[in-house]
Amino acid sequence: MFYWLMKYVAIGPLVKAIFRPWIVGRDNVPASGAAILASNHLSFADSIFLPLLLDRPMSFLAKSDYFTGRGLKGWATKVFMKGTGQIPIDRSGGKASEASLNTGLQILGRGDLLGIYPEGTRSPDGKLYRGRTGLARMALEAKVPVIPVVMVDTDVIMPIGQSIPNVGRVGVLIGEPLDFSRYAGMENDRYILRAVTDEIMIALQRLGAQEYDDVYASTVKDRLPQKARRR
C-alpha cells in the first residue's frame, strides 16, 4: 500500500511532471512472472526512475547504508527507500554476499521483478564496467530471464555526491529478455557464470552504446584520489 501511495500519489506524479522521463521497450518486461532487470548504474536516481516507469512493482537490492542514516535526513532516506521497494543488503562480501543472494532468490521465488546493478557500484566516470557474477548465479538458480536496462542521463540530473537534483530529462531503454535456460544446473560453474555475466554486459553495451572498460568499477574508484571519487 505504501509503495502504491509513493508511486501514484505522493512522489510519482511530481517527479514525472518535473523530469518528464521517457521509456523505450516497456513491453519487454513480462506482465507477470519473475524476472531480473539488470541495469547500468550512473546515479542514485536510477533506483527512482526505473520503478516509476514500469507498470509492475519491483524491488532493488540496495546497500544497507541507505537504511541506517541518522537524523531527519537519515529517516527520510530510509522511508523513501522502503517506500520505493528497496531491500537492504550487506555488500561486505563472504557470508553477506550469500545472504544477498538468498534475499534476491526469495523475491524471485514470489514471482516478482528484481532489479540488480551488475557493476556492483555506480560508474565513477560514465563508462560501463565489468559485471559481477552474482547476477548470473541468481538468474540460473531461479531459472528466470534477465532483461537488460540502460538508464540515460540520470548522472546529468543527479551526479554522484550531489543531493539536490538538476532539472532535466532522463530516459530508460529496455532490451529484449535474455534466456539462459541452456545453462540449467550449471550455476556453480564459475566459467559459466562469467560467460553469462559477460553476455549480459555486452547486451547492455549494445543497448546503450556506453564505452565499455573490462575492469571492475570499484577498482577504478580505488585508484582515484580520495577527493576525486564520486560516491
UniProtKB/TrEMBL annotation:
GO MF annotations, alphabetized:
acyltransferase activity
InterPro entries in the record, alphabetically?
A: Plipid/glycerol_acylTrfase
Q: Name one Pfam family in it.
A: Acyltransferase
Tell me the keywords, alphabetical order.
Acyltransferase, Transferase
- Cited SUPFAM superfamilies: Glycerol-3-phosphate (1)-acyltransferase
Q: What superkingdom does the record give?
A: Bacteria
* Keyword Membrane on entry: no
| All residue ranges annotated as the Phospholipid/glycerol acyltransferase domain in the record | 35-154
- UniProt-recorded name of the protein: 1-acyl-sn-glycerol-3-phosphate acyltransferase
| Biological source species | Microbacterium arabinogalactanolyticum
